[in-house]
Amino acid sequence: MNSMIPVLTIDGPSGSGKGTISRLVAARLGWHFLDSGALYRAVGVAAGWEDVDLADPDALQRLAERTVVGFRDSPDGEPRVLVDGVDATDELRTETAGAAASAIAANPGVRAVLVERQRAFRRAPGLVADGRDMGTVIFPDAPYKVFLTAGAEERARRRHKQLSEKGLEVTLDSLLREILARDARDAQRSVAPLKPAEDAVTVDSTGVPIDAVVERVLSLLPDSLRQASPAR
Ligand SMILES: Nc1ncnc2c1ncn2[C@@H]1O[C@H](COP(=O)(O)OP(=O)(O)O)[C@@H](O)[C@H]1O
Ligand SMILES: Nc1ccn([C@H]2C[C@H](O)[C@@H](COP(=O)(O)OP(=O)(O)O)O2)c(=O)n1
C-alpha cells in the first residue's frame, strides 16, 4: 500500500536550503525526490509562454491541467525540468518564475490539480518531498517532517550567490525584498499556507554548513532507513 512507503517532508521559505538538503538526503537514503516548487514554477513559466493572465483563476487551472512537467537526471545532480517537453530549467530558477509561482500557488484550483501529481511521486523505497505544504497537506501522514528555516538576510545572500554563479545579475537588496514579499504571500494565503506541520521538527540552518544540516535531518530517521539502497 502506498501509505506504507516512507516520506520525509522538508518545507520552508525560499532560500532555506530545501532543494539542496532534500537532494542530498534523498541521495544518501537512495530515495526519490519531489521538487514541488518546480510544478508551480512550470505553470508560471507556461503562463508566460502562452500569455495566460495570472489574474484569471479558471484559465490558470486549465493551464495547470494541460501543462506536462518532467524531470530528467543530469550529471551535476540538479535534475533538468522539462515543461511540455522543453528544457526550461534555467528559466524556472529565476526570481521572476519564483514570484509568478508564488502568485499562482494562491489559486485553490491550481493546487487541487497538482495534489495527485505530487502524491504519485511516493514510490518505493521512499520519498523526500520539498515544498511549502508537503507535511501539512500533500503527505500529512509522512512519518518524518522537517521545517527548514534560516534568517531572511542569509537566505537572500545565498540566493544572490547562487544566481551570480549562474551569471544572473540581481542586487542583494532587491532579492531580500522579493524574498520577504514571497514569504508573506506564501504564509498568508488561505489555501495550504506556508507553516510548520504540528508534528514537524524545525531546523534552523542559519550559519550551519550544508553537510551539518544534512546530518541533522538524517538523525531524525531510524538507523534501519539510513542504509542507502538505490532509488528505482
Ligand atoms: N546551510 C547552508 N549554508 C549555506 N548555503 C546553503 C545552505 N543550504 C543551502 N545553501 C545554498 O543556498 C542556495 C539556496 O538553496 P536552495 O536549496 O535552492 O533553497 P530553497 O530550495 O529552500 O529555495 C543554494 O545555492 C545552496 O547551495
Ligand atoms: N509545495 C509548494 C511549493 C511551492 N509553492 C509556491 C510558493 C513558492 O514561493 C513558489 C516557488 O517554490 P520553490 O520551492 O520553487 O521556491 P524556492 O526554491 O523556495 O525559492 O511556489 C507552493 O505554494 N507550494
From TrEMBL:
Pfam family of the protein (one): Cytidylate_kin
Enzyme nomenclature, EC number: 2.7.4.25
Cellular location(s): Cytoplasm
MF annotations from Gene Ontology: kinase activity
Top-tier EC class: transferase
Catalytic reactions of this protein: CMP + ATP = CDP + ADP; dCMP + ATP = dCDP + ADP
Family matches, as InterPro entries: Cytidylate_kin, Cytidylate_kinase_dom, P-loop_NTPase
Keywords assigned by UniProt, alphabetized: ATP-binding, Cytoplasm, Kinase, Nucleotide-binding, Transferase
Residues binding ATP: 12-20
Sequence ranges assigned to domain Cytidylate kinase in this UniProt record: 9-220
Family the UniProt entry places it in: Belongs to the cytidylate kinase family. Type 1 subfamily.
Name used for this protein in its record: Cytidylate kinase
Species, as recorded: Pseudomarimonas salicorniae
Gene field: cmk
